[in-house]
Description:
The structure holds two protein chains of two kinds. By secondary structure, chain A is of the alpha+beta class. Chain A is built from 17 helices and twelve strands. In chain A, helix 8 (313-327) packs across helix 13 and helix 8 packs parallel to helix 15 (469-481). Chain B has a seven-stranded antiparallel sheet with strand order 11-10-9-8-7-12-13. A six-stranded antiparallel sheet of chain B has the order 1-6-2-3-4-5, with helices on both faces. The chains are: A alpha+beta, B alpha+beta. Chains A and B meet through helix 12, helix 16 and helix 17 of A and helix 2 and helix 3 of B.
Amino acid sequence: MASRKPFYLLVGLLIIAGVSLTLHRHYTYDIPWLPGETRQTWSIEAKVEFDATGEEILASLAIPNTQPGFTQLNQQTASPGYGLAFSERETGGDRAEWSVRNASGEQALYYKVDMLLDPYAAPPQTSKPPKLKVHIEKEPYATAANQLLDRAQERSSNPYTLARELIQEFNIQSQNAQLLAQLKPQLNWIVQLLHQAGVPAREVHALYLEDGRRRQELVNYIQVFDGEDYELFNPETGERGRPENLLLWEYHSGPVLEVVGGINSHVTFSMIEQEQPFSVALNQKFADNELLNFSLYTLPLEEQALFKGILLIPVGVLMVVLMRILVGLKTSGTFMPVLIALAFIQTSLITGLVGFLLIVGAGLVIRSYLSYLNLLLVARISAVIIMVIGIIAIFSIIAYKLGLTEGMKVTFFPMIILAWTIERMSILWEEEGPHQVVIQGGGSLLVAVLAYLAMNNELIRHLTFNFLGIQLILMALVLMAGNYTGYRLLELKRFKPMVEDK
Amino acid sequence: MSGPLINWLRDVKHRYVHPSRLASKGVLGMNRRNISYISRYNPRHLYPLVDDKLQTKQIALDHGVTAPDLIGVIREQHEVGDLSELIATYPGFCIKPAHGSGGKGILVITRNDENGYHKANGQTVSLSDLERHVSNILAGLFSLGGRADVAIIEALIEFDDCFTGFTYEGVPDTRVIVFKGFPVMAMMRLSTSDSNGKANLHQGAVGVGLNIGDGSALRAVQFDRRILLHPDTGTNLHSLKVPHWEQLLALAVSCYEMSGLGYLGTDIVLDRHKGPMLLELNARPGLSIQVANGEGLLPRLRQVEALGHKHKMTAQQRVDFAREHFSRKL
């Protein structure tokens, strides 16, 4: 007898690999354990308005991309008569650009984007710090600014604390701040002074997301870099970090909106919050993101539906293995119950059971005549297949005439499998009598129903489709069942007489 | 309101036995039989030797194991016409499929006269009936999965009269489980009207557990329940004692050398003139023999396994070992 060590090693490896793959998918891709969970998405609409002056128009709007906290799902625009292009600036940052040969009067362009609230969002490119730029200011502004900066530098130790202290300094030294504000806004001063201190920083335009808000404006934040990392600061309070509902709209040192050939341009935002089933959200998230992501969500929808079925088969197979090895049920045809269960999924349980019993029953009656004809096996099975097709056709027509559209679903049964089932049952009837037919047929149906209940379970469907690691665990379970030497449940009943009398 | 449920649970509990009690009795279960005995001791390539009765017969002949004489084999449809020639000199004979299972397709002709061929149950059939039966065998009507088969015609076994009254129609045969050359357990299988003359326990035949020491009955069961009298003939089954017991065990044990299978079921019949004869071998013998004996196979199998590979016992010594250690009293 060969050592069982390699076997247990294999089973152990399968389980470890399966569990870690599953956990990985849960924690990296935020796929929930339970079905029916929803994900929050925000639909944000930007409305660009301006008065056209009757010339060529080029309107360019900064648009958000996937960023920490949010994954961009899809975007669309509405702008009748305008040509549209999405482009990327050299400095990074995507823009929507509308153009038209000539237009006059009030113009309105719409851009809509769906953002998925996603703690695991993976931005396509990291945010690059801007180049340091130092302005030489004239007096008295230079002195006032330097006073603010010196005080802040005294109390700080790194770029982030410097930014915080600088913002607070503007609030404390209100005289200096007011003086500086005469020349340019406070925000610009803060960024400029940070640059002066050797800290890359920029002004970014962000949007507070609140459900159902309309005509919202962008708010300004300061993005302060420390090497590759950055932090956001509220320029008024000095508060550090991104509020959860803050979406960065423009964060590449570019203008939010540029309009050539128009005046009085401005952009406003309206937004709604939506709860989407996570599968819809994931579908959109992974739709154009194929790299590194071994997920069925990257497949076209039709193939996804196919795989949903295929990945359930191991569950049905495991059910058969357990029923045969642990319980000891007899089935006619080892995996016939799985195929019947797959048909039940299509037809619904009751319709499927009734249809199955009708077809097999009618088949057995006709098959008994075939057995009287004494045919060769292949010809006999072929005859049974044709007969099954005939029965299915007749039942469908009868059901349709009677207005039972449910009855039409019998066509979902795999006909070859039905033919073999009828053949086996018929032979069983002749050889072992109707009693065995009831036992084995009932066993097969019981296993099929159990397999159906397992495969049709929402949770199991969800888990098998979203966590491919589950397949490895199923494999390990099947292997372990193949090594089970204990008693079957029905043997406990069968051998009972042996222990009760002396 | 939980009353019926509790009653039902109690009822279910009553019908099942705790696995530890079966284990303490040493009962061999199907899973353990398959993993620990059949797949461990029966090399797959030897299966055809026992699944094909013609090959079994061939190796029995080569090894001098007593088996019913082979009259002839019909392999192809066009040879069916030769049947009358083959059987011309034999008053009684038996036609069976080489790959039949569960006694299907076995036709026994006891004698023939001007009325035709007499079957064991008294019916007469004509030569063309026999030829059609052979055609059916060739077409695979009786073989597993309906594969094409060959028909074997062998000499009639003249059953020993000692079993009269113990069996209803059919052939009384003795099943001996031979493990690594040791006869570990034995039972007699007696057909009943429930089993339609067949000797399969799950079809309703009576199983009588036999004492390995001397071939006397230990207990009898039908449908896994203990009985005392044969349901059709009313004979006291406990009075059964198989004659030529030592010879029978020797025959069973020789099947181990002959087939090479470590875990083997041998079916043996007693001929009035020639004594014990090998009817067929089984590489996957059933577990009912334990019910018939009221004892589990595992302790005996383990006792044999404990001897290891190096015991170098002769066939006779193995029989003696088994008779010494596996003897039981009624």
